[in-house]
Amino acid sequence: MAIRVCQFITELRPAGAERCVLELARRLPAERFRVQVAALRGGPVADWLRAAGVPVHVLNVRGKWDLWRASTLGDILKAETCDILHTHLFHADVLGRRAARRAGIPHVLNTVHVAEQRWRPWQFAWARAAAGGLDRIVCVSQGVRDFHSRRTGIAQAKYRVIYNGVDAPAYARDESLRQERRRQWEIPPGDVLCAFVGRLDKQKGIDVLLAAFEQALAAAANLQLVIAGEGPLRRRVDRWRQSSPAGRRARILGRTEDVRGVLSAADIFCQPSRWEGFCLAAAEAMAAGLPVAATDVAGLNEVVADEQTGILCPADDTQAFAAAMVRLAGDSTLRARLGAAGRRRVMEQFSIERFIQEHAALYEEIAGTRA
Q1: CA distance 185 to 152
Q2: Do 3-165+351-367 and 168-349 have matching folds?
Q3: For residue range 132-157, what is the model confidence (pLDDT) as tens digits?
Q4: How many angstroms separate the Cα of 367 from the Cα of each of 108, 109, 120, 293, 296?
Q5: Which of 223, 204, 224 is nearest to 297 (CA)?
Q6: Which residues pair with 311 in a beta bridge?
Q7: Would you list the domain boundaries of the chain?
Q8: Pick from 44, 71, 68, 41: which is nearest to 57 by CA?
């Protein structure tokens, strides 16, 4: 009999945790699992799930004064007679566990997606107090597990590390896309294009990237930059492009679904995060064969191997990040070596197949159906 799983997440916009939910829902073997997804708020991922034939329940909770809508989750879980509730992100975890108790769901697990550095002590207090109601806490990297265990005091035996997965063939470099995008963006043949794909916010260090790019241009005048993403610092990025001389060598794309095109056009991927969990964007860039200039923070330093698939720098060190960009820009042999090793690393350690297999095994273990 198939195990009935409900994935519950805060919202369904295109981001790391949401994409993990998407991949699990549409890739778990249908003969072993019946999967549905619920979310407090919707987004484009809801449409992608429905297109894949996955049942989706969007509760349309708009804010704290609208939480009464979340009470319907218990009714949904009870009607579907789920075996496992798998929660993602803080608010979905809090509300999901209450709904699971109401519906009599026998098994609950939660995935922690980030080593959260913002001041949110209540989240760790909640996790510590409610840990007894969980079968497992899944973490997307060892760094996240160690950080979460240290902040909550929960024994590491409660955790299971499952690295995020990347569909490597979907990000393989496409030479025709490369030429098309570089013509579109007017990138001269001899110039080296740096790329950033992700949220434009403090966590991702977009301000560090802009400052480092300015410094790097002084030593490597052939550098260009493309930024794909949206977020709270978008206006700051636009102002920088308009006011800084370096901005003339940058393209700001906003949110795009053409990630493969961006990665195909690029020569270097930049990930100056202040904190992370795993960092799918860096892994996808490695799948495209790009060397990665990144920061040495928990989770990200398990994806990017220093001097093997990229160059790691201290977080918030603009000068060191600029030096990494200059070094990569000036050495095409180094770029090729790091990029090839990065692609192998993704296929061997961070494949989407492994990600699905490890979750399937965990669900069957929890539900008591493993042979």
Answers
A1: 47
A2: yes
A3: 888 999 999 999 999 999 999 999 99
A4: 10, 11, 32, 42, 37
A5: 204
A6: 293
A7: 3-165+351-367, 168-349
A8: 41
How is the beta sheet containing 268-271 ordered, strand by strand? 250-254, 223-228, 192-197, 268-271, 292-295, 310-313
CATH number of 168-349: 3.40.50.2000
Neighbours of 330 (CB within 10 A): 14
Tokens 């913002």 sit at which residue?
118
The closest alpha carbon to 307, from 337, 330, 343, 279, belongs to 337
**CA separation for the pair 174, 153 (Å, rounded):** 47
CATH superfamily for 3-165+351-367 is Glycogen Phosphorylase B; (3.40.50.2000)
Instruction: Give the sheet arrangement for strand 84-88, strand by strand.
Output: 56-58, 33-39, 3-9, 84-88, 107-112, 136-139, 159-161
Residues 6+ apart with CB under 8 A from 353: 165
3-class state of residue 34 by DSSP: strand
Q: Would you state the structure tokens that stand for residue 139, as one six-digit string?
A: 């973490």
Alpha-carbon gap, residue 208 to 226, rounded angstroms: 15
Q: Give the whole-angstrom CA distance, residue 234 versus residue 221.
A: 25
pLDDT band of 371, cuts 50, 70, 90: very low
DSSP secondary structure letter of residue 5? E
Q: How many beta carbons lie within 10 A of that of residue 152, not counting itself?
A: 19
- Total residues found in the chain within this entry: 371
* Residue 351: how many other CB atoms lie within 10 Å: 17
SS3 readout for 62-97: CCHHHHHHHHHHHHHHHHHCCCEEEEECHHHHHHHH
* CA dihedral angle for residue 322, residue 325, residue 329, residue 335, rounded to 10 degrees: 160
DSSP codes of every residue in 200-253: -STTTTHHHHHHHHHHHHHH-TTEEEEEE--STTHHHHHHHHHHSGGGGGEEEE
Q: Write out pLDDT tens, residues 250-307.
A: 999 999 989 999 999 999 999 999 999 999 999 999 999 999 999 999 999 999 999 9
Give the integer Cα–Cα distance in Å for 217 and 223. 6
356: Cα separation from own chain's centroid: 16
